[in-house]
Design goal:
Layout: H1 21-38, H2 43-60, H3 69-81, H4 87-105, H5 111-119, H6 150-170, H7 175-191, H8 195-199, E1 206-207, E2 220-226, E3 235-240, H9 246-261, H10 279-293, H11 302-314, H12 320-327, H13 332-336, H14 344-362, H15 365-368
Antiparallel strand pairs: 1-2, 2-3
Length: about 375
């Protein structure tokens, strides 16, 4: 049999007289890969889950048929206290282990019979309702995470532009890369994009908006690498251009900067070899700029998307539904997490109470009595 992800030969799990612990464990992982492929999970997701299972085995020193609930508790206590992993990361890791144990304990796959026959023990579910982290609220991001203030954002963009001039003046290489990254940051803000969305943009993703001809060829953006839901391909959405300066930024880059990197590729933000710019490079440059500016903690690349939502609400007065569709949130409550602006109900109730208080304050004393 051939491994579906790596193309290597594997052994069938139910072979007579061959119960090497390492071999059985590898067969378990291969069978799990096949099951996940059948459920439409991506290769990246599958590899990430396999990596966690292997790390769990290395940490505990036990194979799955010897795992206990105590092993899981000790592992995640280590991840929380020593590695200081985020709540959402812990919950994701627990889910990975749970679905692996679900696979092993499902009678359809017969791993219980294999393990009892070979090792005298069968796998058990080690992630239960008693030791699993609960998803208690929608917003689990760190409280320090925040959008840019408008003045901060302008200062950040100014420094990104200045970096290009500094590299040119020094005679060092990297001016085009600095120009590319500055344009990436501006594009992420101008269309409210996640890091993965902006790094995969291609020239064919932009088109005219006949109802807004002033934006030229950059009136509508078709996002093709949106955040995927479980077992589904990347989610698509259309984003309308709203800032009058953004088409000029992209058009100038495509005409003046992109040909110096990889003129024959369709990616808008490639490396010199034509591949999409790695997100790690952007994160590193972003952090360098933030550190140089000395901004307060809580800013990351996703803050550009947070700022887009917040600024459309607070400074430009766009409707909540419009902003929700622009950023591709399925639920309005998700969009509201990005901004401090209250709901229409809260605003109207506040205005009603304030108006009633003012009316009582200015009413003559005898009428109040």
């Amino acid at each position: 049999m051939v491994d579906p992800l790596e193309g290597r030969l594997i052994r069938l799990p139910l072979r007579q007289g061959a119960f090497s612990a390492d071999a059985v464990f590898e067969d378990m992982l291969t069978g799990w890969k096949q099951q996940q492929l059948a459920r439409n999970f991506t290769a990246g997701t599958i590899r990430g889950r396999e990596s966690l299972v292997r790390r769990f085995v290395d940490h505990t020193g036990h194979f799955p048929w010897d795992w206990t609930v105590g092993d899981a508790d000790e592992f995640f206590a280590h991840e929380r206290s020593i590695l200081n992993l985020a709540f959402a990361t812990i919950r994701a890791y627990q889910t990975h282990l749970k679905v692996f144990c679900d696979f092993l304990t499902d009678p359809v796959y017969e791993w219980d019979r294999v393990c009892v026959q070979g090792f005298g023990r069968s796998p058990a579910q080690i992630i239960t309702e008693f030791n699993r982290a609960r998803h208690a609220q929608n917003n689990e991001q760190a409280p320090t995470k925040r959008p840019f203030a408008r003045a901060e954002l302008q200062g950040f963009f100014d420094l990104a532009d200045l970096e290009v001039e500094r590299v040119l003046a020094s005679g060092r290489k990297g001016a085009v890369a600095a120009y590319r990254d500055a344009t990436v940051f501006k594009t992420a803000y101008a269309w409210g994009l996640r890091a993965n969305e902006v790094t995969h943009l291609q020239t064919v993703d932009f088109s005219r908006n006949r109802r807004a001809p002033q934006f030229g060829e950059f009136g509508v953006l078709q996002v093709r690498y949106g955040k995927a839901q479980r077992g589904s391909p990347p989610k698509r959405r259309s984003v309308l251009t709203v800032f009058d300066w953004s088409p000029d930024v992209l058009d100038t880059w495509i005409r003046s900067g992109l040909p110096w990197l990889a003129p024959a590729v369709s990616e808008i933000f490639p490396t010199a070899n034509g591949l999409p710019v790695p997100k790690s490079n952007l994160h590193r440059r972003f952090r360098d700029y933030i550190d140089e500016l000395g901004y307060a903690p809580g800013l990351d690349i996703h803050s550009l998307r947070r700022s887009y939502v917040t600024h459309l609400f607070e400074h430009f007065g766009f409707d909540h539904t419009f902003v929700q569709r622009q950023v591709g949130h399925e639920h309005a409550s998700t969009t509201s997490l990005y901004t401090s602006v209250s709901s229409d109900y809260q605003t109207s109730e506040l205005n009603r109470v304030l108006e009633d208080m003012i009316e009582k304050a200015v009413r003559p004393k005898e009428e109040r009595e």
